[in-house]
Every structure is written in structure tokens, then in C-alpha cells.
Design a protein that fits this description.
alpha/beta, Spore Coat Polysaccharide Biosynthesis Protein SpsA, Chain A, globular, binds uridine-5'-diphosphate, binds magnesium ion
């Protein structure tokens, strides 16, 4: 069983080694508990710092680490799509480099998929603690308005941190549109999703 972790990175040279350390710790645990193997796919989204250098260094010391590097900054959505295309896992997770998406949740998320009752384990945060109030206000308004306009439910507080089956991953990949909105696509493709709640965590670096 192979699990792919897709990590879009824009100027994350400080966060990446911390992410790698924590993800490796969880991967070792899950090798024992679930017999799971991992690949880590860092997508350098045209970073201006040493993100690509760090990706190369991690790849040189650990062959589970792979990377994609963009010619310029295309945005997180493009990074997620490129990562999904590169992923070879039976289960595929998308997560941020700054540890706001805790790898420690992965064992529970995998357990959920292994029951066979779900194709997706998704996360949402229950608080916006630590976020500037104006940003929270606009975020809440965004969810109110989009859910009035759209038939596809966009869950307030939903993060892009998910673990998906290969079946659902392939469905998401089959949508090759240019201006991507992953939260909408994840919901639009259907499949049974179980939600995990957690409190907001501030970025690690
Ligand atoms: N990111 C990216 N391209 C961008 C902006 C962000 O790949 O143009 C990545 C970033 O490195 C991080 C994730 O997307 O891994 C979420 O970004 P950030 O932490 O800035 O967003 P927030 O947590 O504030 O929503
Ligand atoms: Mg963040």
C-alpha cells in the first residue's frame, strides 16, 4: 500500500525540513501500524527562496522524496493538480508545507478509507483562531455567497487537506480545467466523504 503526500510549496525553505521530519515520523508509525509505504511529492511553485534546493537535498537523501518544479508561480491550485498527476499512490493526500495540516491525523484518515465505506477523509477547522479578523470576515462571506450561488456544497472551514482513494483521485484528475478550484472539484466529483474537525494551527515558519 503506497500513500502519496502532495505538498504545494511557495517560498517554504524553512517549513519544508520541519514538514519532512514530522511526515517521516508519522510514515514510520504507519509502516508499523498499517504496513503503509509513502512518497512525498513537493511541488515548487516558482519559489524565490531555496525551496527547490531543499527539495533536491531531501530527494538526494531519501528516495521517497520526489519533486516537481514550476517555471514561475502558478498558484496553489496548479500545484495540487501537478502533484496529483505525479502521484503513484493507492491513497493520495494533499497537504500544506507549513504543518497547518497535521500529518498526525493521517492514521485515522486512512483507517476511515480502509473500512471501505468512504473514498475520502477530509478536514475542516472549527475555529479561525490566530487569523486576522478582516480575513475571517471575508472568508465567511465568501462561503455564504458561494453556497447561495452554487449547487455544489462548499463546506465553510474546509481545508484542502484530504486523503483520497485512487478511484476518487482519478475522478479529480479527469477534470482538466484551467482555472481550478479544488474545494469545488472535490465536492463536485461526489464520493462519500468523512469529515475530521480540528482547531486552527498557526504556520510553523
Ligand atoms: N502555496 C503555493 N503557491 C502559492 C501560494 C501558496 O503552492 O502561490 C502553498 C504554500 O506553500 C502552502 C499552501 O500552499 O504549502 C498554503 O499556503 P498558505 O499557508 O500561504 O495559505 P493559508 O494557510 O494562509 O491558507
Ligand atoms: Mg498556511
Amino acid at each position: 500500500m503506497l500513500i502519496s503526500l502532495i505538498v504545494p510549496c511557495y517560498n517554504e525553505e524553512e517549513a519544508m525540513p520541519l514538514f519532512y521530519k514530522e511526515a517521516s515520523r508519522v510514515a514510520a508509525e504507519m509502516k508499523t501500524s498499517h504496513g503503509a509505504d509513502f512518497e512525498f511529492i513537493f511541488v515548487d511553485d516558482g519559489s524565490r527562496d531555496g525551496t527547490l534546493r531543499v527539495a533536491r537535498e531531501l530527494h538526494a537523501q531519501d528516495d521517497r522524496v520526489r519533486y516537481v518544479s514550476f517555471s514561475r508561480n502558478f498558484g496553489k491550485e496548479a500545484g495540487i493538480y501537478a502533484g496529483l498527476q505525479a502521484a503513484r499512490g493507492d491513497y493520495v493526500a494533499t497537504m500544506d508545507a507549513d504543518l497547518q495540516d497535521p500529518p498526525a491525523l493521517l492514521p485515522q484518515m486512512l483507517d476511515t478509507l480502509l473500512t471501505g465505506a468512504y473514498d475520502c477523509a477530509a478536514t475542516r477547522r472549527t475555529t479561525r483562531k490566530g487569523e486576522p479578523p478582516l480575513r475571517s470576515w471575508f472568508a465567511r462571506k465568501f462561503y455564504q455567497i458561494i453556497n447561495k450561488m452554487s449547487d455544489t456544497e462548499i463546506v465553510d472551514g474546509a481545508r484542502d487537506f484530504r486523503l483520497m482513494s485512487r478511484k476518487m483521485t482519478d475522478a479529480v484528475l479527469s477534470m482538466a480545467e484551467y482555472n481550478r478550484f479544488s474545494k469545488g472539484i472535490f465536492s463536485w466529483v461526489g464520493f462519500k466523504t468523512k469529515w475530521f474537525d480540528y482547531e486552527n494551527i498557526e504556520r510553523v515558519a
